[in-house]
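ARCHIVE CARD
Drawer: 12
Card no.: 0347
Subject: one protein chain, sequence and derived structure
Cross-reference: see card 0346
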Amino acid sequence: MRKLVFLILFPVLCFYRLTAQTLTSSNLPIMIITTDGGAAIIDNPRVLATMKIIYRGEGQRNYVSDQNTAAYLNYNGRIDIEIRGSSSQATDKKQYGFTTREADNVSTNNVSLLGMPEENDWIINGMVFDPARMRDYLCYTLSRQLGEYASRTAYCELIINGQYMGLYLLEEKIKADKNRVNVIKIGTTDNYLPELSGGYITKADKTTGGDVPIFYIGPAAYIHDLPKPELATSEQTNYIYGVFSRLADVALNHNMSLINGIPSVIDIPSFIDHMLISEISSNADSYQFSTFFHKDRNGKLRAGPLWDNDLTFGNDLFQWGFDRSHTDVWQFADGGNVGSRFWSDMFNTSLFKCYMSKRWNELVASDHPLNLTHIDNMIDQASSLISEAIGREYTRWSIPGTFSAQTTSMKTWLASRITWMTTNLGSYDICNNISLPSLVISKINYHPEASSDFPSSDDLEFIEITNTGTTSADLTGIYFAGTGLVFQFPVGSSVQAGSSVYLAGNIDIFKLKYGFTPFGKFTRDLSNKDQNLVLADGYGNIIDQVHYYDSAPWPDADGNGSYLKLIDNSLDNSLPENWTASADNNILDVVNPTKDYLKIYPNPVDNILNISAGQPVGRLEIFDIQGRELVSEDVPGTSFELNVSNFPKGAYIVRISSQGKTYTKGIIKR
């Protein structure tokens, strides 16, 4: 996104001259778009078209003549398409947004394009302001290597209505999706907490092109991306404004308290990673334009994903007199697009800057993502991949200079930038060698087995966290970092040495199943496939991390009644061989009825439920599947008959508390 002044200048400036080219084959995928009736593609409304993507596979050559060979088509179907972007619309080379559609031209069609996860909204990035044609690709890839989500990309060559259009980058559009920005989609009725707390995707951006700002913080205008602007309620707008306002306040006061400071508002690792990519590339647009944030339900505000990284690595809109991407400036404080003040206020908060320096020095070390050699190799690999197409691209759009000069300049620039940042970020002594509690993720029930007693298996999910240390652990501010699972321990909470806490997907159902109340409830369901669980303190220091999978070599605990259990809490829980699949429901001091002690019959039951035991039954409770208590009474004898004829048909939980132990049993009323 660019400033409005650029649009005023466009009519008298020509960015590229168009030169005819013919494409017959490529080492890259070939995208062919044919609009209905040869209609011109415009910016709103979208036009209908057919799209084919020719791709024989990794390392194979692709031919335009393959467009009618089904075996070589990665996609062959309907789309609607429009020109996208703001300043780029005035250039000869256009950029496009499209949606994959079913044959009815109305229904969206979620598909995987060139190996990317299924979705229906996509971007075709022309990279028109980047003569090296790789700056977005590099920044997005680096962000993903840091562990953050950024749009996946694939280079391709594009033909529209029979005309060769050049080299493009197919990208995922930023949107809420488990494989993109992994937040809950907030709805129009979500106007009260906790639903009101998320999920949001908010961007700081320019307001041309019809975008309506919902609030300003300093010079930066903020715009709804999720919810859609036209669907956002006043409650939702006020809520997310309150989150950003709170960030501005605590940053202004340099407050790094876990209780009420910066760590209580934001996910610090995501903000630091966002700043480091923005700064190592010296992005002239960062912080004020194309700067995204997202917040899940009950979660912290997170920075990202990255977007629009073409004015980076020394590149700028030189033809309009701009020269802002330098090796020796902080973009949040250079007097240009500095965005909201909270960016510079956080940087000038000593503990925040310390963690930023610590992360930086980790990432520029050998074999790490921001190491100079690593990025140089990425530039070389991208250059090799597009080397054939870039020749056609430079000819097609009459780009001045040479491609090799562009990549050489980027490498030279980058070496100076890394040196300058290392010097100016300074020491990280005050946040190094931090003492962390000895907390271990020791049980994971990620895909419980559904049953007649518990038909919604997600309600039975749980995680056990054990304190393996010798002293009580303060849990204040400890949370699950990243996206997907959301939980943060409340202020003042703790766990004793040698003890465990349980977090559950549904507190009431967990209590019915296991006979005791878990410590807390997490938001979102655990993945049935794989998930990276990162337990961190409020500053982002990793306490424990487990990435489990539903496939070998991990034990089989996938919907079969078992859960993952660490064999010994002293073992490395990142290794699958140190876990076992356990079907033991005695996860605490809770046992299930056995035929030798307690009998509850018949099951299923019509009218009279019989209960007999080898000792006084004790406290008898019966709950329905929603956790509502229906029966609660003391039974002094060893047997009891309960008339359940007036119970509606369905599943119920019987709970008996006797001599310090709790017994649970599911029954069915016919």
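Annotation on reverse: The first helix runs from residue 4 to 9. DSSP finds ten helices and 33 strands in the chain.
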